[in-house]
Amino acid sequence: MIKRELRPINYLAYGLNDVLGAGSMAVISGWILFFYTTFCGLSTVQAASIFAIARILDAVASPLIGHISDGLGNTALGKRFGRRRVFLLFSIPLLPSFALMWVSGQEYLYYLITYVFFELVYASVIIPYETLAAEMTDDFKKRAKLAGARILTGQIAAIFAGILPAWIVSVVGGKDSASTFLIMGIIFSVTFMAMVFMVWFFTWERPAEDAHTPSQTVSNRQWTLLGTLTTLFKNLSSTLKIRAFRLHLGMYLGGYISQDVFNAAFTYFVVFAIGGSVAVASQMMGLTYCAQLVAVAVAIPLVIRLGPAPSYRIAVGFYIAGIFALLGLFWWVAEFNFYLLAGALVLAGFGRGALNYIPWNTYNYMADVDQIVTGKRREGSFAGVMTFVRKATQAAAVMFVGIVLEAGGFASGASEQSQQAITTIVATLVIGPVIVLLLGYWVSTKFRINNETHTVLMAEIERFKQGVISQPSDENKQIVEDLSGWRYEQMWGNNDLCEVEPSIETNRNRNEYKPTV
């Protein structure tokens, strides 16, 4: 039983970790490819390969970190410092590795090592951190407030990640240089250390006696790298057999990959295609994140009123309109125009903000759809799959931009680019995001979770819990089958999904609640 009371400082401290979570990723996605190719002498393919290698290593490291944190409570270290928060404490002195990424004039191996090392430090903080809301309280509303604190902080951090380079340029003399990014890296490193310390100091974990279950004990005995990778593969394959989750991933990736490609190409577009500067690109990214913050506030009541899928399609429309406005700016405006650029990005930002929020809203229902199929609650499995897929696709998107620019004639380190390279930059900024957005739009037409269908879903879950064996209505049966992708006769564990890491609780439910239909 968790008895400690959450106070405002605990909500604030918990949310501050997304200064690292969202802030660092906003800096990396918006600036690192440009920094590598402009100030470090790397080709776009070399720079993109760094992301790919880091993601391959992270695909092993991330599930391993989560698995270790589950069993660390049985060790002397875990008993002294906690099985989750010990990762935060020991990662604090390693966070200045973020600044080392932004030292210019080094060799390829230096940038590979520094990037991979920070990614591992980042994972060592983020993965244990994502368990803390469930560790600190069992109350649904309090967990929702903790999540809200995190999202709000992350959006604000992303704003600063966008505008900080412009501030630094103005302070150090108004000239774009490698020192701008090193100073930014140092500022963020110090901030990360302070924020993670606040999280460690003002959060807590469940009492040790509440942290273990029979299934957890089995997991601890199988605490091996091979066991972790096997579990990861099983969770990946089993979660993807839930239709609503597959559609959710389509919408999620449509919104996020489009932003990855856009962010990676945007600075090149501003500097080389329309005659701006790094400072201008920084200001515009900050403006975009401000628009996204407003869009999140608007999207919340819109989703409640219209449902996630229709709201998603509206957001896609805004984002595509903003992208085509940028294309029009390149084609028809002869000189650089700050205000027209800002208007196009505000329009795009309204779509981007909603696309950031809506998938995380729909994610909250995935475990409910899974429960009616398996009879289990597997939030952790779905969170793990989302993190794995997100990191893999983000790396692929950034690498895609690097390869395309290289093939299009982009010259690393040059102050001016050929017309072919500029055309490639513009095409990447426009075509890549639009194609992915249209795919997400198409997927959303098949996604039917809303307030009404979710109410039916929860009612059917309750029927199974109570052991009711009467026939469901035809409408309810159709809704549940559409969401899950399984026949009604296969619900509540009457399928092979329950063979993935079966627990004592699950086996008991399967024996008691098999439906007669």
Give short descriptive properties of this protein:
single chain, 517 residues, mainly alpha, Growth Hormone, Chain: A, 2 domains, 22 helices, 76% helix, disordered C terminus
What does it look like?
There is one protein chain. The chain has 517 residues and is an all-alpha fold. The chain is built from 22 helices and no strands. It has helices spanning 8-16, 18-39, 44-71, 76-81, 85-91, 97-100, 108-129, 132-136, 140-172, 178-202, 214-221, 225-239, 243-273, 278-306, 308-332, 338-363, 366-374, 379-407, 419-444, 451-465, 474-484, 504-512. Helix 9 runs antiparallel to helix 10 (178-202). The longest helix has 33 residues, at 140-172. The model is unreliable at 210-223 and 500-517 (pLDDT under 50).
Brief synopsis:
The chain has helices at 8-16, 18-39, 44-71, 76-81, 85-91, 97-100, 108-129, 132-136, 140-172, 178-202, 214-221, 225-239, 243-273, 278-306, 308-332, 338-363, 366-374, 379-407, 419-444, 451-465, 474-484, 504-512.
How would you summarize the topology of this molecule?
Elements: H1 8-16, H2 18-39, H3 44-71, H4 76-81, H5 85-91, H6 97-100, H7 108-129, H8 132-136, H9 140-172, H10 178-202, H11 214-221, H12 225-239, H13 243-273, H14 278-306, H15 308-332, H16 338-363, H17 366-374, H18 379-407, H19 419-444, H20 451-465, H21 474-484, H22 504-512
Give the overall pLDDT as a whole number. 80
Shape: globular
CATH topology of the largest domain: Growth Hormone, Chain: A
Note poorly predicted spans. Answer: 210-223, 500-517
Strand proportion:
under 5%
The overall strand count is 0
Terminal residue distance: 39 Å
